[in-house]
């Protein structure tokens, strides 16, 4: 299975329409891939809070239509990163979109853990509540977004739901880049799953981005890592490696669930 991660430079001087068109062209160049992944909130920038409401779209909006066409033209599964979604309830959500090779919106995921510590995304956007998995022909993807990476219980839930690989679009800041790499490898090791973590490049809303999109195998080995600029990573994944790793080192079966809080 061939996967490509497009680490997009979210330039504040590039219009959203221009970036949509440019990204669509990049996707169409990846016809040899089976899965293409984009970053979090790449249309506006993950820290451009003032743009969330103005650029919010429905799941059938301009970005969704453009990504649907690109997926269909390339004949690939497309994790189109996330968009600021305007829900039917009027609230905003940080929502990931997954399109099938025929261009259908197959799955969506509203980010559960919102970043900001009572500021920014944490107060501007609603929280999702559903774990989402996407069955592909060769393996099942578990969906998470950026700050979710810090919460291992979410990933264990995805493993229990059948995930063999995690797709994590992000707008991760440069000042915490070491955490990005560490956490991506930790989630791979503890869950014996592939991690495909796709970030943004450049600086937006005054926040330098980490870049360094990364693909980690189920043993925690880094298969590919981008630099700090716009770049596309393409990696061949062996779905059997998930099953082989879990069989050779069956740590997941030793989990102890439902532990009580110690009495004081």
UniProtKB/TrEMBL annotation:
<feature type="domain" description="CN hydrolase">
    <location>
        <begin position="1"/>
        <end position="239"/>
    </location>
</feature>
<dbReference type="InterPro" id="IPR036526">
    <property type="entry name" value="C-N_Hydrolase_sf"/>
</dbReference>
<dbReference type="Pfam" id="PF00795">
    <property type="entry name" value="CN_hydrolase"/>
</dbReference>
<comment type="similarity">
    <text>Belongs to the carbon-nitrogen hydrolase superfamily. NIT1/NIT2 family.</text>
</comment>
<dbReference type="GO" id="GO:0016787">
    <property type="term" value="F:hydrolase activity"/>
</dbReference>
<protein>
    <submittedName>
        <fullName>Hydrolase</fullName>
    </submittedName>
</protein>
<dbReference type="InterPro" id="IPR003010">
    <property type="entry name" value="C-N_Hydrolase"/>
</dbReference>
<keyword id="KW-0378">Hydrolase</keyword>
<dbReference type="InterPro" id="IPR001110">
    <property type="entry name" value="UPF0012_CS"/>
</dbReference>
């Amino acid at each position: 299975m061939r996967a490509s991660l497009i680490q997009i430079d979210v330039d504040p001087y590039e219009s959203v329409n221009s970036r949509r068109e440019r990204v669509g062209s990049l996707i169409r160049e990846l016809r040899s891939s089976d899965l293409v992944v984009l970053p979090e909130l790449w249309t506006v920038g993950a820290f451009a809070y003032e743009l969330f409401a103005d650029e919010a779209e429905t799941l059938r909006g301009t970005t969704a239509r453009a990504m649907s066409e690109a997926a269909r033209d390339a004949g690939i599964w497309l994790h189109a990163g996330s968009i600021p979604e305007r829900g039917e309830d009027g609230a905003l959500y940080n929502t990931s979109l997954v399109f099938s090779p025929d261009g259908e919106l197959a799955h969506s995921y509203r980010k559960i853990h919102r970043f900001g510590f009572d500021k920014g995304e944490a107060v501007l956007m609603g929280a999702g509540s559903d774990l989402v998995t996407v069955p592909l022909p060769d393996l099942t993807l578990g969906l998470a977004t950026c700050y979710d990476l810090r919460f291992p219980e979410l990933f264990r839930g995805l493993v229990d739901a059948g995930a063999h690989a995690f797709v994590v679009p992000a707008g991760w800041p440069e000042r915490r880049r070491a955490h990005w790499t560490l956490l991506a490898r930790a989630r791979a090791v503890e869950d014996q799953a592939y991690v495909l973590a796709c970030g943004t490049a450049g600086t937006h809303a005054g926040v330098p981005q980490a870049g360094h999109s990364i693909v980690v195998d189920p043993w925690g080995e880094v298969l590919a890592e981008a630099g700090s600029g716009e770049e596309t990573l393409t990696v061949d994944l062996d779905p059997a490696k998930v099953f082989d790793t879990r069989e050779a080192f069956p740590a997941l079966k030793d989990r102890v669930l439902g532990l009580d809080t110690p009495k004081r």
